Amino acid sequence: MKLKIQKIIADAGICSRRKAEELIKEGLVTVNGKTAKIGERADPETDYIKVRGKLINPILKKKKYIYYLLNKPVGYLCTVKDPSHRPTVMDLVKSRERIYPVGRLDMMSSGLVILTNDGELANLLTKAGKHPKKYLVKVKGNPTEKQLKRLRQGILLDGEKLAPCEINVRKIKPESYTWLEVILYQGKNRQIRRMFDAIFHPVLKLKRIAIGPISDRGLPVGHYRELTEKEVMELKNVMENKETKGEKKSKRK
Question: Which residues are catalytic?
Answer without folding.
Answer: 106
